[in-house]
Specification:
Structural class: alpha+beta
Number of helices: 3
Strand content: 15-25%
Largest sheet: 6 strands, mixed
Shape: globular
């Protein structure tokens, strides 16, 4: 009999085969924040997308909005910022260096690139900005960050 992990992977693969891409949600545990990522955008010539630190339902909205945005404006690139994904500020996109947790994408796609969507705190600050209000554990950043913005 298949393990729960194998059944989950088969379901994800079925979704990718049917729709061209899917979202995989990884629940957080006491020592790690939750994260969600796409599988299948690579076949469109885009980077896979990842977001950390948000509940699955919220992350799902961010990811689906990001895919819609790319369909209308073109693929995101590292360093891009967009206000189209949330009303609370600009979301930055950075290259993901640490892809260890993206096991389903690795298994299904082999080699791929990914971008992390880094969301702002309630004041519109990103994790590398002076005045960022969340703890680093709230939204792990998995790639190189821009230089900090100076305080006003």
């Amino acid at each position: 009999m298949d393990s729960p992990n194998e059944r989950a992977f088969a379901d994800l693969k079925r979704m990718v085969d049917t729709y061209g891409w899917a979202v995989r949600h990884v629940l957080g545990i006491a020592s790690a924040a939750p994260f969600s990522y796409t599988v299948g955008l690579t076949t469109r010539g885009w980077d896979e997308l990842l977001i950390t630190g948000l509940p699955a339902d919220v992350a799902d909205v961010f990811i689906r909005n990001a895919v819609d945005e790319q369909e209308s404006r073109g693929a995101f690139q590292p360093g891009d910022r967009t206000d189209a994904l949330t009303e609370s500020g600009s979301v930055a996109l950075i290259r993901v260096d640490d892809r260890r947790g993206l096991t389903a994408a690795e298994r299904m796609l082999g080699d791929f690139e990914a971008l992390q969507m880094v969301w702002p705190d309630s004041s519109g600050n990103l994790p590398w900005d002076i005045g960022y209000r969340n703890t680093p554990e709230a939204q792990p950043v998995l790639g190189p960050t821009p230089r900090p913005n100076r305080a006003p």
